[in-house]
Amino acid sequence: MRDTVETTTAQIKQLTSALYAAGWDAATTGTQEALGAAAQARGEMMRYFANPEPYAQFKGWDEDGVAGDDAELGRMLRVLHLSFAQGQRDPATIDEMTELARALDDAYTNFRPEVDGERLTANAIVGVLRREDDSEKRRAAWEGSKLIGPRVADQIRRLAELRNQAAHGMGYPNYHRMSLTFNELDPDWLYALLDDLAAKIEEPFRAAKAEMDAVLSERFNVPVDELMPWHYAEPFFQQAPMVGAVDYNALIEGRDLVDLALKTYDGLGMDIHDILARSDLYEREGKDQHAFCTHIDREGDVRILCNLQPTLRWIETLLHELGHAVYDKYIPKDLPWLLRTFPHILSTESMAMLMGALTLDPEWYERVMGMSSAEAEQIGTAGALRFRLEELIFARWVMVVVNFERLLYEDPARDLDTAWWDLVQKYQLLNKPPQRDNMPDWATKYHIALAPAYYQNYLLGRMMSLQWRGWLDQHAGGIVGRVAAGDFFRERVFEVGNTLHWNAAVEVATGERLNPDYFVERFA
Fold first, then answer.
1. How many CB atoms neighbour CB 409 within 10 A?
2. 361 near 418, Cβ under 8 Å?
3. β-sheet bridge partners, residue 304
4. Which of 42, 245, 370, 466 is the one with CA 20 to 30 A from 390?
């Protein structure tokens, strides 16, 4: 049995490294050759995990508990069982899914809408929404960002149908429920948690949005009830506009973001020089406009991709992606390769979100930005208000995405355009602009196409990060500039790798399982 595990692991390692290396080339170049190579590697991985024989074998060993008292072996059997379970589909379906994913990857990577005769990057569109006071110019940029929707919507629907076919073959009603289950999240627990949280933050969100809308109404000389999605900070209203006493973008402008990141992680006793040396940090034509971290081989080749600009958004993103990166880097190399990763994607999201949030921490402005304690305290007071606003806004946005994906996979043929705006109006309290009927604005969000059933991990990661933060405030005095905080991560978080279920790993780190009350108490 252990020989079978080791042989299988060696094969997965080779496929994984090839896939991540090809994905990196595709994201950093956007060429047809690189995108094709990434699609081929993705197809090879899918075909490998579609094999029904190892699935049946690992499922049987896992469910029968044949590992006995060998917890490490038992965890590897569990990981292999779930990995093969997610991959069960026929060769023709794999070929079609691979081609669809390649086409979508190409579309999102190389999308640059033309607005008023100028091709705009994602950064440029956000720049318009950040700086421009003219409502019509803002509207043009916002609508330009949505032009990719009609190009890709049919392909996304087809991918959803194919994903559902695999789920039905495994005995699940749809892909969303199957994916959550195989990623060790109980769908009913998640749906209930989101519904409960939506109710608890409803009034705080309404009040915070009303205050924000009053400021935006005055800025744009538009009545509050006529504010439109393009009057907010970015195309999906997943971040807060720059309202309040402190202009954080002005504080960041002119600063070297890489230098700030180095100081931040040096203060934790974490070396990121090697990560940055392998990374791709600045935007250019043909490059993926998002940001991500990848660990090519689980042997230390950790890299991040960004498109840095001197703004609060991008220093937060840089610290966020480096949070993923140090998690990968500091997982012990003496763990079996299969367990040499995080216990769940929400675990590494927690680290990333914790680090990104430091950009609103007064100690960060004093110890990293070099401001006086009085200046930092003033910024920190405003930062606490902004952090609350950001998290209320983002939580409601997560509810839009997760509930939309539930509807999408329950019936990919339904009127998704209307369903999307119904959810946006319900959870984000945004006005639906005229002439958006029969417009697949939902298809403009990359994650719905190519990172399905993922978005809940951001919100669960925030909950986990607040739980970690509570422990750190009590036992290490905080995070910024504290090597003891770095020791906490290395010894109580990274050390366990994927040897435990994610919720058991939370308990090892903080003494209790995931507790949503930390989020409610902090923000609601």
1. 23
2. no
3. 293
4. 370
Q: Are 293 and 328 in contact (CB under 8 A)?
A: yes
- Per-residue pLDDT tens over the stretch 4-14: 999 999 999 99
**d(Cα 394, Cα 168) in Å, to the nearest integer?**
32
Q: Which two tokens stand for residue 429?
A: 């309290």
Specify whether the CB–CB gap between 28 and 304 falls below 8 A. no
Phi-psi category of 270—alpha, beta or left, where left has phi over 0 and alpha has psi -120 to 50?
Answer: beta
As a whole number of angstroms, the distance between CA 7 and CA 3 comes to 6
Domains of the chain: 188-523 (1.10.1370.30)
Place of tokens 């639906």: 432
Take residue 305 and report the two structure tokens written for it.
């991709």
Cβ-proximal residues to 205 (8 Å cutoff; 6+ apart), any chain: 392, 393, 395, 396, 429
Band of pLDDT at residue 395, cut at 50, 70 and 90: very high
CA–CA distance, 387 with 469 (Å, rounded to integer): 14
* 255 secondary structure, DSSP code: S
What are the pLDDT digits (tens) for 490-504?
Answer: 999 999 999 999 999
Written as one letter, the residue type at 392 is: L
Per 3-state DSSP, what percentage of the chain is helix, strand, and coil (rounded to 5)? 70, 0, 30
Residue 292's φ and ψ, nearest 5 degrees, are: -160, 170
CA angle 16, 497, 81 (to 5 degrees): 55
Quote the CA–CA distance of 125 and 147 in Å, as a whole number: 13
Burial status of residue 508 (CB atoms within 10 A of its CB: 0-12, 13-18, 19 or more): middle
- HEC-encoded secondary structure of 15-82: HHHHHHHHHHHHHHHCCHHHHHHHHHHHHHHHHHHCCHHHHHHHHHHHHHCCCCCCHHHHHHHHHHHH
Neighbours of 193 (CB within 10 A): 18
Q: Positive or negative, the Cα torsion across 23, 238, 365, 520?
A: negative
Summarize pLDDT for 191-232 with one digit per residue, the tens.
999 999 999 999 999 999 999 999 999 999 999 999 999 999
Please tell me whether residue 338 adopts helix, strand or coil conformation: helix
pLDDT band at 364 (very low <50, low <70, confident <90, very high): very high
286: closest CA among 32, 489, 70? Answer: 32
If phi > 0 it is left, if psi is from -120 to 50 it is alpha, else beta; for residue 232 that is beta
CA distance 12 to 19: 10
Segment holding 303, helix H or strand E: strand 302-305
Q: What are the beta bridge partners of residue 293?
A: 304
